[in-house]
Predict the structure.
Amino acid sequence: MMNLKKIFAATTITALLLTGCSSNAGAPKTQNTEQNESAAKGEKTLSIAEGSKNMKDVLKDMKSKLENKDEEGAVNASAGLEDNWKVFEDNVKDKNKELYEKVEQPLHTINAAVKIKPLDTKTLIDAIDVLDKQLDEVGKLK
């Protein structure tokens, strides 16, 4: 089982490196995207609770789109996850390394799964549910 996890992790990392950064040039900007762009420029920082809530909102949107068979919308929404996470992940890592790792795993699964067509809706929804539960714990960090 451990070898399977290592193979999956290596495959995921390789796939992400080979595909490079995805572009969401055609995706409409959301309030969260604009906040993240501002935060990336150093204009605003989010608290752990705010960042966690933003990610949970993106997950809710993704899950809704998946349930409504809107694969393209779900893929576009997924870009907001990593954008939101980048803003406050270092704070989470500093406060609780174990919880940080628990967030990273389903996040990587989601990021890899949205690149495979057709989408594996069950895998994505399962990963969304796991990440959502982890974000509940992240939101409680002080």
Notes: The chain has six helices and no strands. Residues 32-139 form a domain with the Four Helix Bundle (Hemerythrin (Met), subunit A) fold (CATH 1.20.120). The chain has one domain: 32-139. The radius of gyration is 15 Å.
